[in-house]
């Protein structure tokens, strides 16, 4: 069986509870810092799925793992945004939590304190080849590569997708965790991926090249299509060792940059599924990224 034109998007990745603390200026060590705090659903994989559904993908499936403590809440939140949740409920470990510290005085820039929780236990036992039935594209969250079970799942899912002719995309997800994993190991683990969507920092870490265009071009010698997300500078599309397109950003007034890259990825994949070329899809990603930074949290608004 090969990929189905106009078929479903399957996302495999993390489902997380985000605690977003928006403060202004430096944190005050040893005492109080005033903040506005909200608890919202998140996770890079889940966010990508939600933005893809928001952009009109007919069927978006999400394979993830949650603890019994929050399974119902996350299932309802995903369903409300048009995603079909395929969640393994773990009775032994808690759903992951991320503390998102957002400095409202620094263009909404965020810092994460991450407890991945049960997301680290998502592995080959959660996979079935039947998950690819009717699927046109498979997207893997890079957070999978930061645990042993996750790395095994990536290898299993890649093999299944290749056997069916389903193209695979991956977002490196975290410059901090990528530093610990190492560039050489990461690039070895993602062999067979068709599309890589790194941030500027991730592309630099993977190549050692400080110039964004040089880094994107170099990565595209290894991976057929590279779409390098540049935040306020838009995106670069590279293939075959050359930058093919420079896509401008969409002006926005940032409130919270959490999930902006996930929004870009979800909208980019939605556009590809709708028949757009990579540059057109990157432009759609920039529009979604701009919309995301003007919201608190990493998800789009609910429908209707």
Automatic annotation (TrEMBL):
Keyword Amino-acid biosynthesis: no
Transmembrane segments: none
Keyword Secreted attached: no
Keyword vocabulary terms for this entry: Kinase, Transferase
Boundaries of every Carbohydrate kinase PfkB domain copy: 9-300
Domain of life: Bacteria
Pfam families: PfkB
Gene Ontology MF, one: kinase activity
Cited InterPro entries: Carboh/pur_kinase_PfkB_CS, PfkB_dom, Ribokinase-like
Protein's name according to its UniProt entry: PfkB family carbohydrate kinase
Natural source organism: Streptomyces doudnae
């Amino acid at each position: 069986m090969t990929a189905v034109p106009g078929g479903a998007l399957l996302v495999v990745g993390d489902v997380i509870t985000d605690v977003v603390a928006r403060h202004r200026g430096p944190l005050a060590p040893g005492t109080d810092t005033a903040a506005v705090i909200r608890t919202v659903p998140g996770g890079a994989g889940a966010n990508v799925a939600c933005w893809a559904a928001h952009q009109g993908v007919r069927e978006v499936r999400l394979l993830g793992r949650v603890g019994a403590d929050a399974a119902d809440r996350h299932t309802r939140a995903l369903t409300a945004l048009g995603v079909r949740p395929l969640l393994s409920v773990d009775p032994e470990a808690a759903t992951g939590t991320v503390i998102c510290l957002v400095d409202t005085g620094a263009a909404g820039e965020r810092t994460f304190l991450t407890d991945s929780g049960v997301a680290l236990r998502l592995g080959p036992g959660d996979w079935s080849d039947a998950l690819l039935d009717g699927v046109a594209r498979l997207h893997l969250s890079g957070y999978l590569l930061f645990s042993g079970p996750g790395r095994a799942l990536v290898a299993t899912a890649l093999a299944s997708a290749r056997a069916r002719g389903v193209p695979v995309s991956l977002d490196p997800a975290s410059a901090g965790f990528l530093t610990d994993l190492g560039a050489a190991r990461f690039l070895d683990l993602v062999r067979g991926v068709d599309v890589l969507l790194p941030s500027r920092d991730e592309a630099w870490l993977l190549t050692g090249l400080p110039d964004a265009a040089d880094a994107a071009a170099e990565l595209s010698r290894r991976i057929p299509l590279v779409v390098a997300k540049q935040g306020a500078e838009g995106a670069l599309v590279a293939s075959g060792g050359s930058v093919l397109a420079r896509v401008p950003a969409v002006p926005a007034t940032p409130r919270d940059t959490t999930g902006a890259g996930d929004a870009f990825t979800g909208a980019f994949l939605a556009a590809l599924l709708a028949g757009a070329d990579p540059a057109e899809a990157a432009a759609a990603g920039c529009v979604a990224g701009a919309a995301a930074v003007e919201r608190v949290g990493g998800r789009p608004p609910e429908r209707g």
